[in-house]
Amino acid sequence: MAHGHPGDSAAPRLRYHGILPALIGTTVCLSVAHAADTNKPQTHHTAPAPSAATAPRPASAEHIIVHRIPDSAPGNQPGGGLIHPQDGVKSVSTVSQDFISKQAPMATAFQLAAMLPGANVSSSDPMGFSPNTDITVRGLDNSAIGYVLEGMPLNDVAAYSGTPSQFADSENYQEIALSQGSADLDSPVLNAAGGLMNLTFRDPAQKAGGDASVSYGSYNTNREFIRLDTGDIAHTGIRGFVSYSHGATDNWRGPGRDEKQHVDFKLLKEWGQGNRASLIGTFNTTITSWYPEPTMDTWKSDGIKGQNNLLAHYDSSNPENGANYWRLWRDGERTLYGGAPVHLTLTDHLTLDVTPYAQLAYGNWPGGSTLSETGLYQGTQALSDTLNLPGAQDGVGVVRADYTQRSYRSGFTSALHYKTGWNDFVLGYWYDYGDDNEQQPFTAVQTNGYAPDIWAQNGRDVIRLSNGERLLGGSFHTISQTNALFVGDHMSLLHDHLAIDLGFKAVMMSRDGTNSMPGPQYHVGSNSMEPLPRLGVRWRIDAENQIFFNATTNFRAPDQSALYNTYDPSSGEMYGTGSADVRNEYSISEELGYRRTGRWIIGSLTLFNYNFTNRQISTQAVQNGSIVSTTMNAGGQTSRGVDVEIGLRPWHHFSPYVSGEYLHATIDNDLISGGDLLRTRGRIAVRSPTLQAAAGLSYDDGHIFGVVTVHYTGHQYATFMNDERVSDHTTGDLAIGYRFSDHIHLHQPTLRMNFINITNEHYLSGVASPTMNAKDTTGVYGTTIAGSAPSYFIGGGFAALFTASTGF
């Protein structure tokens, strides 16, 4: 309130010009400086001319300084950082640093996105180290989702899946955005019927400094993290950061220990009118221990104990038992991702975005197995060799069945934008090249259970035949190339009340492969060309309310494993028959939604519909003792449902958030099994819980903070015949902490505790390997179709973690 000077007949008024509505929901500080009283007598003396900062202001006006506290400040984001205002033509949900910074520091992108509508995370490890994990979005699994880090793809080149523990350290994420319905027009992904997970790194700090943290908790977990920011390097305008982390943990059930080292970096240069170029990268090396995935029978009989765990000690007296020794099931993997996103403002109307990228990966996914010393086959070719396996009994010895993958991927995306009037045209091109080499050698196991070279790279340690060649269960080499052209137009009409997006993408994909195993198959190849049109509309009713509609198309070629024959080295028989004549999945999806961005409430409600042909379902198969990823064709599918999420802006430092989903996903046709048909038409699709709900409550006053979250997942079927399912389950997590004020060179030293699965719920978190039918059933043509047991993920148990961190 403005006050007049004493003796004034009329007090000057502070006129309100509508600035504050733009700051609703943002904390502001107002400082009022009264002008000098011109009625006072003036003292005449010589003085220096006033500077701009000290010059007197007109007496007729008040001076108001508005200090804006950024939305990114801790505790200042709606829903505790689990929701953000959106303005596009499709459904998008986000997780920001405000929420991420309060979670366990080794939490993966999957775990951090688990509260968002439609996201169902199946994990095996509370600490996030294990690769035994999956995420479904609206019932569509991990391999149906695109993963992109600042314009570069992170999906596996062969199986489309993503391993979130490899992506980045959580401290370096600025935001995780999940588009549930579709990928962006220019996204470099092929498989994103289930949507797009778009990951964004924080920008390097303007000033030199850094962050460091140490953590210790349950299961002898320890983690150390440090990040260094360069600030402006030698006045070039270039700034960057590099971070390193190390973590290790014991398996929470059964024997085993995981260890991980990780490096992230980013260099950034900004200049001119919006020009921006960066170099980003992430390197990960890890060795993880396998968590056995039980059947329903073993789960009911043993739970988290007994046969659902690997053996802590090697059993040399029994080869079948010895194959379950935990050291034979340790996975080693190294990955390197690199990209260089560039944005250039060419003219007032023309901009160019280019992102070259590259990906290198090597891993070994072994398993304990047994092998006969005689009667072996290389593909279909019988061998006369006799092996000499340590500790063999009755001609059978324990081996480590290795499964190595060495892959290289590179490419670039480019998009030229031309903006004029109410049109923003885009013309773009995406090229991707992949080189994938997968082999299945074997390593002999010593009588004490030792098998050398966990990476299976040393040629001296693998089993070789008398002619010097390695004994192999499989050997595939695939070159894949993708060319995509896209064109679109974003139209902003009626003062941006109406926005229309039109787009068209033509994708051409070719695969050329060789199967080096002796047999009927050597060269394989496939070619695909798919047109992918799209349409999006957003109508802004007023400043707080919007409706949107989005219709997109997607396609996905089957995994590379579908191309190749696989053989049993003990009999020469085929595990599976590969074919170049495989059918691509094609889907059409629609969304109709409402958004509100109000003074206190931010929320959305989205209706969605999907229609699939040749629906690809990711599963796992045992090949020569190794568990590998593959896909199965689930025919047609229709998925319909509704997503809802609501978050409140901070009120007395409290920020609640709720989300939920109703999903009705059905199989459209009977499925082929052997020479008959299973009666699957109209049954519920696998991995598609009908109901999901999540709620979170955050408190943050700048010093004391806490987050409590609860997540409910309804039952989900594990077979296409719906004769076996996972029960519903509810889990909860808690985080509490305290931020100290800056002290000397330390910026906000922080102590926090994270409690994961606070009720220590023992539950099946998801379906690892679905099957057609669990019980024997009669097919359409009257034959008996034998049942096959699905396998499941066991959810991680209770864990507590203490973290001390500080900036500097």
Provide structural commentary.
The chain has 808 residues and is mainly beta. It has four helices and 49 strands. The strands form twelve sheets. The chain has a 23-stranded antiparallel sheet that branches. Strands 3-8-9-6-7 form a five-stranded mixed sheet. It is globular. The model is unreliable at 1-71 (pLDDT under 50). This is TonB-dependent receptor. Belongs to the TonB-dependent receptor family. It is found in: Cell outer membrane. Residues 87-186 form the TonB-dependent receptor plug domain. InterPro entries: Beta-barrel_TonB, Beta-barrel_TonB_sf, Plug_dom, Plug_dom_sf, TonB-dep_rcpt-like.
Spell out the blueprint of helices and strands.
Layout: E1 28-33, E2 63-68, E3 93-96, H1 97-100, H2 109-112, E4 119-122, E5 134-137, E6 146-149, E7 152-153, E8 173-179, E9 196-201, E10 209-217, E11 221-229, E12 238-250, E13 257-271, E14 275-289, H3 296-302, H4 319-322, E15 330-339, E16 342-345, E17 350-364, E18 367-372, E19 377-378, E20 381-382, E21 396-401, E22 404-420, E23 423-439, E24 442-444, E25 475-493, E26 498-515, E27 523-540, E28 545-556, E29 566-567, E30 574-576, E31 585-597, E32 601-613, E33 616-623, E34 626-633, E35 637-648, E36 654-667, E37 671-673, E38 676-678, E39 691-700, E40 704-713, E41 716-717, E42 725-726, E43 729-739, E44 747-756, E45 764-769, E46 777-778, E47 784-785, E48 791-794, E49 799-807
What attributes characterize this protein structure?
808 residues; mainly beta; five-stranded mixed sheet; 50% strand; disordered N terminus
Q: Distance between termini?
A: 41 Å
Give me the count of strands. Answer: 49
Total count of helical runs of at least 4 residues: 4
Shape estimate: globular
- Helical content class: under 10%
Low-confidence stretches: 1-71
Structural class: mainly beta
How much is the average pLDDT?
A: 88
